[in-house]
Amino acid sequence: MAAGKLHVYLVRHGKTMFNTSRRVQGWSDTPLTNEGIEVAQFLGRGLRDISFDSVYTSDRGRTIETAGIVLQESNQTHLEINELRDFREFGFGKFEGELEDIMFGSVMKHLGFQTLDEAFE
């Protein structure tokens, strides 16, 4: 990397059980699915030619697990995963773990819309 340049790679965590069941997941923490693990492995193999200086994740298990898999597959397990609470996803309060459709329906109703489509007209 050229002096004075900083490259930042942003990676979303692998697919989780809540993602699969379309449940709201902010601060809730559910495990990665097999598909989520496989995608993280694929990503890690694709990043083998990039030498990272540091790795940062939120303190949620799904992000730590994803980073660990990526580091394993990219042969960079010497790097420490820095867990930062400030990197957490937005907390959805009473909607944590609820079906996404229920949350979106409630929010749309609160905003005065009958449907999600109406909100974006």
From TrEMBL:
GO terms for molecular function: fructose-2,6-bisphosphate 2-phosphatase activity. It comes from Listeria seeligeri FSL N1-067. Pfam families: His_Phos_1 (PF00300). This is Phosphoglycerate mutase family protein. Substrate binds at R12, H13, G14, K15, T16, M17, F18, N19, R62. The active site is at H13, E89. InterPro entries: His_Pase_superF_clade-1, His_PPase_superfam, Phosphoglycerate_Mutase. GO terms for biological process: negative regulation of glycolytic process; regulation of pentose-phosphate shunt.
